[in-house]
Amino acid sequence: MRAEVIESLKQIVGEDWVLTSLDQTKGYLYDETEELMRPEAAEDSIVVKPGTTEEIAEIMKYANKELIPVVPRGGGTGLCGGAIPTETSIILSDERLNKIIEIDEENLMATCEAGVTLADLLEKLREYDNLFFPIHPGDEGAHIGGMVVENAGGAKAVRHGIMRNHVKGLEVVLPTGEIVNLGGKLIKNNSGLDLLHLMIGSEGILGIVTKATLKLYPESKYSGTLLISFDNRRDAIGVVPKILQSGIIPLAIEYMERDIALESAAHIGEKWPAEEGSVDVIVMLSENKEDDLYEKSEVIAELCEEHNAVYTMIAETTKEQRSILAVRSNVYTAVVHDAADALDMAVPVASIADFMNDIFALAEKYGARTPSVGHAGDGNIHNFIMRENGERPSYFDELKEAMYKTAVKYGGTITAEHGIGKTRVSNLAIQLSQKEIELIKGIKKVFDPNGILNPGTIVNKR
Ligand SMILES: Cc1cc2nc3c(=O)[nH]c(=O)nc-3n(C[C@H](O)[C@H](O)[C@H](O)COP(=O)(O)OP(=O)(O)OC[C@H]3O[C@@H](n4cnc5c(N)ncnc54)[C@H](O)[C@@H]3O)c2cc1C
């Protein structure tokens, strides 16, 4: 990076908050897709850590004038390369914007700066009697800003929906340096086009999120987790729409193949309770009355038995529930070292069984190992494409494309929650028409006329 740029940024944020040597910056050159993207061309990038919205506005004005790419960065837990620079850039880390500004118990809203981690927000909520924030992507190191622009999902979407359903207000710095405030503590708001919702899921290409107001809920008093095992995938997945049709709305319905459950359990030193069967479904319930919890657990257990379940465990103690959920949560960390990619396609819930059959037929055709877990209640399955002898297999791109086409054939999406980022740009046209891609490029141009913000994310560079 040019010396005068470094100097100008130090003038804005202070000497200590600009990192320039590769030793200091290399941790900021990757996200969780490290293996898919190798940003050698970006090693000359620098990291700035502004402490206020106004400093971010100054940085953006400067970068826009000098035409320097800016890559926003939150917790770096992203799974699509969005936070990875691909050319010499200013990496703008929001880590110093880490204040929880307000917990508004009256309106059930929390207002946070963008760099607050999910872990910090959840810890803060524990200070209150019964406040609950439902969005939980697997890694609590994710920042609120990153969760907003990635429109994060996670397991509990079955009952509560995704990040989009919980973001009520945003403060955003535009690529040209203006600050806008979108929405507020409102449940209804119909003024003009919905720029708030355009910003949610925008993957850091339209603006830098600096503050977010989020919807909270009273926490239910009783929770239970059912672990139900089946002999085959079709039975396990086939029961998911039946549970949803029963009128019970669980917090989560997760699907996990046994091999991967055992791998994850071994990874974290837990014992997986189910021995019968080869595929598991986990149903999380939370209710205000204990009787409701038991009654709903019984209904689900019976439904699963009718659908050929071979083992049912109703975990009631916190310890048992935590153990099952920890195994599910750690699947990614257990297998990532051996995975070439983790896909996150989704299809309409009633089509998952057929979709998965096609996916496994494809895997067989290519001789690939594609262990799967997923948020089955949302029709969202994570298929890993595993490496061979430590390398990305030669059929990788072809198989991935064929899998994406299969999802689209069922009316699905190539990415339910991880986003397009930089790793899926070349696959976007599998799902979207040329007209839709042109509209996205047109919107990008309105917000970012010089194409400086996160170039190469969602759409190709300027
Ligand atoms: C083990 C594991 C499990 C996961 N499970 C899930 C899951 O179940 N569901 C799910 O949805 N995701 C999941 N994820 C993915 C990830 O946690 C989410 O995408 C999360 O929202 C990313 O937040 P982050 O702060 O780490 O963002 P980063 O990785 O830092 O950035 C992600 C994108 O957001 C942009 N960005 C970051 N901060 C800002 C900002 N303040 N303003 C504008 N743009 C910004 C970046 O440029 C980049 O494009 C998982 C990740 C891991 C490692």
TrEMBL record:
Coiled coil: none annotated. One of its GO terms (molecular function) is FAD binding. It comes from the Bacteria. It holds the Pfam family FAD-oxidase_C. Its cofactor is FAD. The keyword RNA-binding does not apply. Keywords: FAD, Flavoprotein, Oxidoreductase. Residues 37-219 form the FAD-binding PCMH-type domain. This is Glycolate oxidase. It comes from Anaerovirgula multivorans.
